[in-house]
Amino acid sequence: MTKEEQNNDEHIVFLGESGFPMGLAAVQRITLMAKTLLTEGYRVTVICRKGVWKKNSKINFGVKGNYEGIDYIYTSESVFRPKGFISRNIQKLKGLYGEFMYLKYLKKHDKINVAIISEMNVVHVLRYLIYSAFLNFSTVINFVELASSMKDRNSVLTKVKDYLYDHWVIKLFDGALPISDRLMKYYMAIAPSKPAMKLPVLCDFEKFGKGKNRDTEPYFLYCGSMAYKEVIDFIIEAYKSISENETTKLFLIVSGGKKSETGLLQEDLNTQFNTEQIRLFSNIPYNQLVDLYNNAIALLIPLRPTVQDSARFPHKIGEYLASGNPVITTNVGEIKNYFEDGKTALVADLYDIDAIAEKMQYVLDNPVDSKNIGANGKQLGLAEFDYRTHGVRLRMFLQEI
């Protein structure tokens, strides 16, 4: 029997994340997990309970459809986020009710084998677990962060919820897909009787197959969230150390945060630099993001020696590698498991401004060797992180669930 004949009656549902199919890292991971399952003949559906896009967004998809073989639905019956407080809450309630009714419909008329859940809010997780008991389907946590270690989740109520999530709720899932060794060990310690499989960063390397435009000005590139403003400041200071030659720029692609926060960052850059040595990008389309990755002389992702950074594995590392350009990072967490300094990446031993600046200077001084490092990194990425390589493992894990 073919894989399709074996699994075409198996249906995997994704819950907890809205924004599909155009979101950033979290949505991209769900998309690639779903495409991995498609390679093994599974049917997949992504259920978004609320609209998240602004009315003026260039959205060209409906509330229900199919994207690259993946079925999806917005149970709020709108992909847009209403402006008014009352309207937003009405949509949330509508989405919550619609989500349950759609799951009930699938269970009655179709089939749900496993729900892969990407959610850290205890209230919603418990709701999904109640649904799973009522409708009789298994649940797996998409385990990519240790909630209680995240600095931006600092309100008292959120800290209480995160503690409950990390120490109790996580045990209630039927299995887990940790993204890192640290999260794998954590889950195995707290839920030793439950199955778990490490699923690292995933990437579709075919989307980065475009040629490079070598006529562009040379630049280093960092892509990250405004939640990591500390890291953005760190990179700016490292760039200052090697920026005497203004022909090499620094491009910063930032996401998340408020528009005012991005504005303040731009004002700060204007104050620190007389010329446009640093360019700031935000809310750019994915094809432009890929183009910026492909044409950078090096891509920056310094990880801090914290519980948060040693537990996570940033999605953009896979995309950085897919560009074929050298990655500059630090020897923290999953980096130790995959990369060798000077061979597949430029890895600083310490999270230190001078150490990162030294790696940036190496790229400027050794362009040929740096290109070779980038090419080796891409080959590593193809072997370890291309979504197609994980299909059999993921199928065997879900069959165990």
TrEMBL record:
Keyword Transferase set for record: yes
**Keyword terms of this UniProt record:** Transferase
Boundaries of every Glycosyl transferase family domain copy? 207-379
- Indicate yes or no for the key word Transferase: yes
**Top-level division of the source organism's lineage:** Bacteria
Which InterPro entries is this protein grouped with? Answer: Glyco_trans_1
Protein's UniProt name: Glycosyltransferase
Q: Which organism is it from?
A: Maribacter arenosus
